[in-house]
Design a protein that fits this description.
Blueprint lengths: L1 E2 L11 H10 L6 H6 L4 E4 L7 E3 L9 H4 L9 E9 L6 H10 L3 E7 L15 E10 L4 E7 L5 E7 H15 L5 E10 L9 H12 L18 E3 L3 H8 L10 H24 L5 H27 L4 H26 L4
Antiparallel strand pairs: 1-6, 2-3, 2-10, 4-9, 5-6, 5-9, 6-7, 7-8
Helix pairs in contact: 6-10, 7-10, 8-9, 9-10
């Protein structure tokens, strides 16, 4: 039996963030990079699937095809992709065990129809990535990190036979003409990378956020401009619009990610207060803690609405209040940071 270390990721809305963060934050030095990033957000005004996310180089909105292969926006993660052909004779659990013995985490796409602890078990064929980080050869199980049948992001045990069925089903569903089974990713912490907390970067990202500007970065060299995207604080208007359509079903993930964004802001502010030994951050921290609570309330109201079909107008009012309150806190924060550049 062996388990590689896993940290409770502060971001769980999309696995493109939660999987690498669950690994890299085992390295204490990586927090300085984390607190320097994850500030900007982006929303697609067409409300396509996965329409709201953190805006880093690695974003669910910017390019699913790239995401399926690498984690390009996270320098703390080393990633190698392996493609297995149909005549490869070993069972998939053998490959996972071998990788974990080399201290490599494994990210693999599986069909949730064959996974008993998933919502789609024996109901729908749904392909989703899953992180494998441990094994128990005595009980014939692989320890994974994923969303369980209740939508909770946590450890899920998968036995060898279910894992094999879920893996082989992906190739059948995708009708891979090259006779390849779907690729797997081997992840590990990049111990050679180093990064110091970058206050200039934080300040610039906050300015981009409050001015709703597209944060310029490496992504511009890969993807063309998308005129359907809105950035920063103006995304509140789109969220309010989305949650006012009177639908029977709403995607809860944007409100969850909004909550995680405020959670990360609180963590960042507490870090800066301690780093600079500056008690003037306290008032801003308290303000963002209140915003975080309001975002959690909005998420809970949405869950209640989808169970009871009560009118959703309260959520829109709450989103408007959150917008106004964060705008106030942002101006305070930016002004407070400017003293470090004089």
């Amino acid at each position: 039996m062996k388990k590689l270390p896993i940290v409770d990721s502060p971001i769980k809305g999309y696995t493109i963030h939660s999987y690498p963060l669950s690994i890299m934050l085992n390295e204490p030095r990586s927090y300085e990079w984390f607190y320097s990033n994850y500030i900007q957000v982006v929303c697609n005004r067409l409300f396509d699937e996965n329409f709201f996310d953190f805006k880093n180089i690695c974003s669910i909105i910017d390019g699913d095809e790239w995401i399926n292969w690498l984690y390009p926006g996270n320098p703390w993660i080393k990633c190698e992709t392996i493609v297995l052909y149909k005549d490869y004779y070993k069972e998939i659990y053998e490959i996972i065990i071998w990788a974990i013995k080399q201290n490599e985490y494994v990210v693999i796409t599986l069909d949730e129809y064959y996974l008993p602890n998933k919502q789609n078990y024996k109901a729908n064929h749904n392909l989703h990535e899953i992180l494998c980080y441990g094994y128990d050869e005595t009980d014939s199980i692989i320890y994974t990190l994923t969303f369980d049948q209740r939508g909770i992001f946590q450890e899920v045990k998968v036995n060898y036979s279910d894992l094999q069925n879920a893996y082989e089903s992906v190739r059948e569903i995708c009708n891979d003409k090259e006779n390849r089974i779907n690729p797997i990713k081997l992840l590990s912490i990049n111990k050679n990378f180093s990064f110091q907390f970058n206050l200039d970067l934080v300040y610039q990202l906050l300015i981009d956020y409050i001015k709703s500007r597209d944060t310029i970065g490496l992504v511009k060299q890969v993807y063309p401009n998308n005129l359907n995207l809105t950035y920063g604080i103006n995304t509140y208007e789109l969220l309010g619009k989305y949650y006012s359509y009177g639908r029977k079903y709403y995607d809860i993930r944007p409100l969850h990610i909004l909550y995680e964004h405020k959670k990360c802001m609180v963590m960042r502010l507490e870090y800066m207060r301690n780093l600079f030994n500056d008690e003037t951050f306290n008032n801003i921290i308290e303000g963002y803690q209140e915003i975080q609570k309001m975002c959690l309330l909005a998420k809970r109201l949405l869950i209640k609405y989808m169970y009871t079909s009560n009118w959703i107008n309260d959520i829109n009012k709450l989103i408007e209040s959150i917008y106004k309150m964060e705008q106030q806190q942002l101006y305070k924060l930016i002004k407070n940071l400017e003293k470090y550049f004089k």
